[in-house]
Automatic annotation (TrEMBL):
Residues 15-93 form the Winged helix DNA-binding domain. This is Winged helix DNA-binding domain-containing protein. PANTHER family: BSL7504 PROTEIN (PTHR37318). It comes from Gordonia malaquae NBRC 108250. Pfam families: HTH_34. SUPFAM superfamilies: Winged helix' DNA-binding domain.
């Protein structure tokens, strides 16, 4: 078994959400992603391009109801990278203190104006 790997390509919030949505089905249409993520066409295109260039997403143009639509699907490499990334995030979270036990450190008066926390 290989070690889960934190993946900076997937980690960006929009790309992580794209992978999560794509992992839940065999494909997702560009327009559906745009609606669910509330991103402009150009912003979503940029995120999709980065995942495609990494080999994580495949693109397929299909015609439905006389209109061309872009379908996106995670590749096998993309699905494995997404699963590894999720496992790596879980490992990071589980190896730290439980959220309930986390406390913000006290800031001393001498540090208050210096930006040191």
């Amino acid at each position: 078994m290989h070690e889960p790997r934190f993946d900076p390509v997937i980690h960006a919030p929009a790309r992580l959400r794209i992978c999560a949505i794509a992992a839940a089905s065999s494909y997702v249409e560009f327009g559906e992603l745009q609606t669910r993520l509330d991103l402009s066409k150009s912003a979503l295109s940029k995120q999709v391009a980065q995942l495609t260039e990494a080999g994580y997403l495949s693109e397929e143009y299909v015609t439905r109801a006389g209109r061309s639509r872009l379908r996106l699907a995670l590749t096998e490499d993309g699905l494995q990278a997404y699963r590894d990334h999720v496992r790596a995030l879980k490992d990071i979270i589980e190896s730290s203190a439980p959220v309930e036990e986390l406390e913000r450190p006290e800031v001393s008066r001498s540090d208050a104006g210096s930006g040191v926390e």
